[in-house]
Amino acid sequence: RSAAAPPPPPETFGAYTKASQENNGVTAMINMLIQELDKEMTVAEAEEKDAQEDYETMMKDSAEKRAADSKSLAEKEAAKADTEAALQQHNDDKASTGKELAATLEFIA
Fold first, then answer.
1. CA-based R_g, the chain, Å
2. How far apart are CA 80 and CA 78, in angstroms?
3. CA atoms 48, 52, 58, 61: torsion sign
4. How far apart are alpha carbons 25 and 11 in whole angstroms?
5. Percentage of the residues of the chain whose pLDDT score is greater than 90
6. 71 Cβ contact list (under 8 Å, min separation 6)
7. How far apart are CA 107 and CA 109, in angstroms?
8. Whole-model pTM above 0.85?
9. Dihedral through CA 24, CA 28, CA 30, CA 33, nearest 10?
């Protein structure tokens, strides 16, 4: 027999770990992703609510502006009609006065 010691065993993959330890890391990562998604959904819901309120406010303001513009337009159209009627009356008066002047000048001459 030989007195030499046998060589050391070959290197292996390292210390033995249970599969449950690896699963804990994956589970923790999935839980973290779920929490991040919940936060993002909460933020998105809040932003949507704010945007909806802004939209409703804008629509209300727009309706008020349309009503005010319609009222203003009606008032301006009424003022224009009154002015046109007054202009027609003045033109008629001018024509009548012009005829009277012509008749007076013919009578004098």
1. 48
2. 5
3. negative
4. 26
5. 69
6. none
7. 6
8. no
9. -170
